[in-house]
Amino acid sequence: xxxxxxxxxxxxxxxxxxxxNSVNAIVSYMINPVFPDFLVSNGVTFELTGIISSLLSWIAxxxxxxxxxxxxxxxxxxxxxxxxxxxAICVYGYSLCHSFGSALIVRILNGVFFGLxxxxxxxxAASFVPVxxxxxxxxYIGLASLIGNLCGPRLGNVIGDVFGINILFILATVVSLLxxxxxxxxxxxxxxxxxxxSINLSGLFAKELTVYMLIIGLFSFGNGIISYYLxxxxxxxxxxxxxxxxxxxxxxxxxxxxxxxxxxxxxxxxFILFPAFILYTVGIIxxxxxxxxxxxxxxxxxxxxxxxxxxxxxxxxxxxxxxxxRSGVASSTIMIGQDIGNGLGPIYASKVIxxxxxxxxxxxxxxxxxxxxxxxxxxxxxxxxxxxxKRRIDNSFNGFExxxxxxxxxxxx
Length: 413
Fold this sequence. Notes:
Helix 2 (12-41) packs antiparallel against helix 7, helix 5 (100-126) packs parallel to helix 13 (327-412) and helix 10 (244-266) runs parallel beside helix 12. The radius of gyration is 24 Å and the shape is globular. The protein has 413 residues and is an all-alpha fold. Helix content is 85%, strand content 0%. It folds into two domains: 11-186, MFS general substrate transporter like domains (Growth Hormone, Chain: A), CATH 1.20.1250; 205-388, Growth Hormone, Chain: A, CATH 1.20.1250.20.
């Protein structure tokens, strides 16, 4: 009976947090699509809209290590409330912006609270997940961003077109404030960790997770390419309705993330990651050779299975390796990889598409994924070798102690 209670995943707190994270993600994605048009309507040149819009991600990237650091040392519930209230203030602040300078300041502040919210929400929700079901729990937590991406943009466009962008900002503000009020209701007891008070490198970045950070960055690299350039590829190759790729991809991810998490909890992270690399690579190769809609949608399924199983597995493994007491730095370290991958993907694509075309551009990325597969295999083999070597040393030491004890007994006789 006690084991069943410990293994329960869908507690009141965890359920509320999954719902709240999903609603908050929808609010974020509601704003993003209409934000450039809002800036233009207030006199900001189109060229500058890209700079202001991208600040959200770059500021969040810079802040993530500190968000993870303080998440491990301060009350996560309080940090969540601060991030949500701060986001609400920033969203309302957009409606008051009528110049480049004011929009720039509000966007920077929004990036601060966005980075805090994204990092702390994962660590806070993980506090309510049993260790033996961590991968499954992380899979469900990760669905929040996916639901936001699936519902937010369309909802934002509809509300903005019907009621106006300012009403959209006010509605988003109210929803963010309601989310913060609901978080207050979540029962949570903060346990002060015995960690150093001064900022140190181990609190900002978990070097133990470097390999996993690079892998998730490699996976996210493809997101950066596809999200920005898939539509252009459709126009170039005459593929109509190519944006259905994202719909199929999101729906598949909704189903695969929790299932992959259960497998991870029963097996291990390598059991998930090796097939994830292969399926993701197959999806990219199919996409490279797609000149009609059907293979594009097939590629979406392969990519969703690969990334939908691989990314949550990495996030859960980070928390398993460091433990819940360092879940903040675990989440921030992994998210740094995601941010870098998302940021470098479109830069890479913009540099090579005109020179080598879409097919070869995706082939190069497929080679990068294969290289990642080989690198991870070498890492796992070395890790196993180190464990076996340590075990042999321990056995030898124990044998030496046993022999010395026998010698002492013999001498005593």
